[in-house]
Specification:
The structure holds two protein chains of two kinds. Chain A is built from seven helices and four strands; from the N terminus they run αβαααβαββαα. Chain A is mainly alpha-helical. A five-stranded mixed beta barrel of chain B has the order 2-3-4-6-5. Classes of the chains: A mainly alpha, B alpha+beta. Strand 1 of chain A pairs parallel with strand 5 of chain B.
């Protein structure tokens, strides 16, 4: 389990060290410069340099936060995370059985809620849009790379993609805050770091699922 | 007793006259003119009134939930330039409303352009480049000479001169047809999406529902609704309308003041609107959607879904859908803003 965390942290470092990738926001569209009207009623007076990006309103951001922090997806992820911890018998002090399973699910759900709350607050303050945007490229590896990279990136309100301090920071913050209710064997800084890595790895997996899942087609 | 009648009768006559005068001078709908494909492309303003560059910055409008700025174009016309998630919906809705005879203002989708002289921007800052270049905006004409807001006057779904009329009920159907869940009215104070306009040189007051940004997505409550979401719009289409036992029309629509929007609509109101709605061709819808900046995939989904919704309305009264009418414009006139 811990090795998974180290792999995730390593991947984060690799992605940040890699040269800037072509993103949706950077990919030039086929539109050309012209002026005045056109046969289709769309007016064009310059070069369109990026695909359309639609920012969220404040109420849309709040709704998105509530849904992602406490909605069915959050519950499903908590059940999955709690079940894996149960199978891994981690932390050992919580033992086995239904009560321990519930405790692990509750712990995962609380940590996720804290992470999303931190992310929502920081993203609002820093004007970051932390929705997941599907890749507009084709090809399995290109889309997978986009999904993995999106774990560490967000957009500003103009749609430009950049390294997201809120995504990474909120995952780190929630990982360390969750040490408060963990038993003694899981309370060191190293445990927090490993938990952070696991959280980012899980987020990558979730993004890959969203990239290819037909359920999420057309959604952010 | 006779003396009391002496005062009561003139008073009643006066009240009745005032009520009749108010109704006569209030306009919600006027028979649409000869609508052509060009009207679906250019909307109520036509090609002639389309914004013409260069665009000169006037100021930023901080009202509402989306970033907006005011600009003046080469013709001297002033425009409200809006960015964000409502631009396509509003442009398409203006074409639909215009084709069906409801009051609306000229709206255009501008894919790209340059606004000069912009400064001290707040919400709109991310949408303008260093040289004032922008992409994806809605330009709405502010033409106070032709159609001006009558002060801050608004109206509500339950209190207006048209309650119970086919025209008001037709407007409600259009709200549902486009999944406009943001049906706020005078009861919502400054957030009202209803307006009353006056026209220069006329005593008439034009009643309009003038916020169509929250359309063409999913209707519903806080966690469900959205805007300009072709997939969601398509998925909800099958629940648009059905006839329940007792000839009761059941609408799938949910939104703000949803019960006011869905209630009071009679079969005769649906049939009245269908006179005009049935004549709208797929080609018209596609042209209007394309002019609103929809991509080809969205055009396909929206056109099929709107056609399906219109057919559902037709099926309320006939087992077989009416034969499609193609290539025929509507032959009526009046539109105060053109």
């Amino acid at each position: 389990m811990k090795s998974l965390g180290f792999v995730a942290v390593g991947l984060l470092m690799w992605l940040n060290a890699a040269p800037a990738q072509t993103t949706q926001a950077e990919a030039p569209s086929a539109s050309t410069a012209s002026s005045g009207g056109s046969a289709d009623g769309v007016l064009r007076g310059g070069l369109v340099t990026h695909p359309e990006y639609v920012p969220q309103t404040a109420s849309e951001r709040f709704r998105s936060y509530l849904f992602s922090a406490f909605g069915p997806g959050a519950i499903g992820r908590a059940v999955a995370g709690g079940s894996i911890s149960q199978w891994d018998d981690s932390p050992k002090e919580w033992g086995g059985g239904a009560a321990a399973w519930g405790e692990r699910i509750g712990s995962a759900y609380a940590e996720h809620g804290i992470r999303k709350t931190l992310e929502f607050g920081a993203a609002s303050a820093l004007h970051e849009d932390d929705r997941y945007f599907r890749s507009d490229e084709s090809g399995f590896w290109k889309r997978t790379r986009h999904a993995i990279a999106s774990t560490f990136t967000a957009r500003d309100y103009a749609g430009n993609e950049h390294l997201s301090f809120t995504r990474v920071g909120s995952a780190a913050g929630a990982s360390f805050i969750s040490r408060i209710w963990q038993p003694r064997s899981e309370t060191t800084a190293g445990d927090g770091a490993v938990n952070f890595g696991i959280t980012m790895a899980a987020e990558m997996g979730w993004n890959v699922f969203k990239e290819f899942s037909p359920i999420h087609a057309g959604r952010h | 007793m006779p003396r009391a009648w002496l005062f009561a009768i003139p008073a009643l006559v006066l009240i009745g006259s005032l009520a009749a005068a108010t109704r006569a001078d209030a306009v919600l709908w006027q028979a649409p003119g000869a609508i052509t494909l060009s009207d679906w492309i250019w909307g109520p303003g036509g090609e002639a009134r389309a914004p013409r560059p260069p665009y000169q910055f006037v100021d930023e409008d901080l009202n509402g939930t989306n970033p907006k700025i005011r600009v003046r174009d080469a013709n001297g016309n002033q425009w409200i330039v809006k960015f964000g998630g409502e631009i396509h919906s509003e442009v398409f809705a203006s074409r639909l409303l215009f084709a069906l005879g409801y009051v609306t203002e000229p709206n255009y989708f501008v894919e790209s352009g340059v606004i000069t002289g912009a400064h001290d921007l707040h919400r709109a800052r991310p949408f303008l480049g260093k040289n004032g270049d922008f992409s994806y905006a809605r330009f709405k004409l502010r033409d106070h000479k032709t159609l001006a807001h009558a002060g801050d006057r608004t109206w509500s779904w339950t209190d207006n001169p048209f309650v119970g009329t086919r025209e008001l009920n037709g407007l409600k159907i259009l709200l549902m047809l486009t999944s406009n869940w943001d049906a706020k009215d005078a009861r919502d104070g400054k957030g009202s999406n209803t307006s009353i306009y006056s026209s220069a040189g006329s005593a008439r007051l034009y009643y309009a529902f003038d916020d169509w940004g929250a359309t063409m997505g999913k209707w519903g409550g806080f966690f469900k609704r959205d805007k300009w979401d072709a997939s969601g719009f398509g998925r909800q289409t099958r629940n648009f309308v059905r006839l329940e036992p007792g000839q009761k029309i059941a609408w799938g629509y949910r939104g703000k003041h949803g019960s006011d929007v869905t209630s009071g609509i009679r079969p005769a109101d649906v049939q009245w609107l269908l006179q005009y709605l049935s004549r709208v061709t797929d080609q018209d819808l596609e042209a209007g959607l394309r002019a609103s900046g929809a991509n080809e995939a969205q055009i396909g989904i929206y056109t099929r879904s709107l056609r399906d919704r219109i057919r559902q309305l037709q099926h309320l009264f006939a087992p077989e859908p009416a034969a499609p009418v193609t290539g025929i414009g509507l032959s009526t006139s009046l539109v105060p803003h053109r």
